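Protein modeling request. Please complete all fields; requests missing the sequence field cannot be processed.
Requester role: graduate student
Desired output: 3D structure, token encoding
Chains: 1
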Amino acid sequence: MFRNYFKTSFRSLWRIRNYTLINIAGLAVGVSVCLVIFVIIRFEQSFDDFHSKKDRIYRVLTEYHHADVANIFYGKAVPFALPGGLSSAFPELKEIAPVFAQGDDQIIVLDQNGQSLKKFKEEKGVFFTTPSFLRIFDFPLLAGNPATALKDPNTAIVTREIAEKYFGDWKNAVGKMVRWNNKENLKVTGILASIPKNTDLPLKVVVAMGTGFTADFAKSSNWEGTTSSFGCFVLLPEHISVSDFNIRLRSYSKKMEPVNDKDSHIIQPLKEIHFDTHAGNFSGKSISPEMIRALWMIAGFILLIACVNFVNLATAQAVNRAREVGVRKVLGSSRSQLKMQFLIETLIIVGISVVMALLIVLAGLPSIGSLLDKPLAIGMLFNSQVLSFLLITAFMVTLLAGFYPSLVMSRFNPIQALKSRLVALASRGLSLRRGLVIFQFVIAQALIVGTLILARQMNYFNSRPLGFDKEAVVNIPVPGDSVGTSRLPYLREKLSAVEGIRMASFNSNTPAEDDNDNWTTFTFNHAIKETDFYSIIKWADHQYLPTYRLPLLAGRNLEPSDTAREFLVDEMVVKNLGLRKPEDALNKEISLWGGTIKGPIVGVMKEFNARSFRRDLAPVLIASMNRGYSEASIKLSTSDISTSIQALEKIWSDVYPDFVFEYQFLDNKIENFYKQEKQLSRLYQMFALVSIFLSCLGLYGLASFMAVQKIKEVGIRKVLGASSANIIYLFSKEFIVLIVIAFAIAAPIAWYFMNRWLQDYPFRIQVSWWIFILGGLSSALIALCTVSFQAVRAAFRNPVESLRTE
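Delivered output (806 residues):
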């Protein structure tokens, strides 16, 4: 019996192959988009899910209570003294792993005599930690002993890929020597297996904590200063509840930090780290839960649009297949058999569509991964989860798309069907089909408006003044060791001789950083307590202000100095201190870290964006200290930048022959702050195009249906003198009304959701009315182009053919 159903279905679909191909194309595109979204979401949700102790692994966060901020917010940076303090105060924590990862590290491969063989620059992936790290996380070793690999200072383990890059064969890498940042020689004591792509700990080189300056971390008593490069993980025992531990941890941290007793610490589950866009992580890649929900919603809506297309196209064909239904009923077919027949036809179309969708995704997934900067591989499609998703999707689409058309066609009256009197009956469903088209264009127009608002917000990010000059500024990492620091005067002299270099400054970082700032409290004007707000501390020389054109509101610039003797502050510091005007801050003393660094305020800068535009303005302190300099900021003449870069590389090779020359333009760096927003914009553009494409298929279906219903009406109108333009208008006005109704529904929905999204940004655009008008006009124009094919076809049809009856 089922064989007969399938044979008949194939014959029927072949007879109406044009509509069949359109249906298959629409469903294939819809399912392929849903499959891509499913793969992306599964990849994001799988981060660090492979660790066997994942339910007991937690990250320590700092809970900030700023005096000028009503809400609490969290950061991944912890005081240097915290890991050691946890070990003493909470003996039940058997595994505590401090982690330091600053980025932009240089590794030199050494020969047996300690001479340089090869130089490599690792933007990310060099981590300092303790042996506890390997006991907490499941990063297995291919060679070496996990218990001793990171036990001694100046030892390191590397991943298999890095070992092959450095030494050729990873099996011969154990025992080899490398040099980190031209400071510390490291002995390779182990080889890590390949690190999965879905981790926020992208290990390349793991160095024993206690090497170099990290030796100070274990004995540090500093509870005030933090850096985003330093964090801490713990393995919580099974019998301890998270809420109870957080209560004890808050109490302990406030006791240890009595000067700033408003801030405290809590622990965060490993599974939440990847979705914490505010605190961030060591990979620099995170996605918000809201974004995951939005992707699921878009996938669902696009699949619904594809199903709506099928319903519209299938019911448009219902009248053409009325006689077939009538003959089947006369010959004894029941309604259930007819329903089964049409559902199997739907199942065949859906089955072919799912296979085509899989082929489309197989061909396009690597390109989509490259576009979104995600390691989306073809292998992600071949697992039980994807297979289950496709089967469930096929079943749901068959029910959603096939149920209503099968119901409509199976209840045709055979007498009316055989006498071709189904026009009135079929037209009863017209309101439903109109509603479905409205639904499609509500989604399409909302996505178009969302895309336009995203584009405007991105343009705002790129064009809004930052408060300093970012044009033609090149940042080059400099060695932070004593030898590298001692060569800075010679480097400055060499740079000043280059014609294309206008200014050069040595500093810890640029005026704007997204996640590379050091925060601290300080004592102002001999106060008893430290400030109840944190400030960003930057180390910079006297050329910092003129290089970036940071304007002063009061006082003067820093004097040339190798040590911190005086400070610059910005307007935010003055406001947070409660001073009325910038001049009131001049000559007042700032004391850091118990008086180890102190000096007067000699200048007040105009406030500037020290972070990305997704964050509020932050108070900033600047002082000179050459041992804190990690990069050179060089202002170039715009006349011949390429020649200046070549001159810079030559100078670098002369001054620092053991260091890799690497540079980055500041405007490119700032543009990368908004990488996630760019990816979101690309996704919205793709989804908007897909939804418009699918909506136009649905519109084509409804236009086809109306063309069938109005054949005689159009013939009579033409006989009575109606022009082709009148006929085209007759068809078009119907759809213009539908588009206007869809716009009236889509506009407030789009405004609500996009306005909520914009609220996350302190610096944002105002949503203008013209964006909605532009989105509505765009969809209307596309809709008219779609309808015009059927409208023109009906308008130029011979009225004799339209009025002929058999």
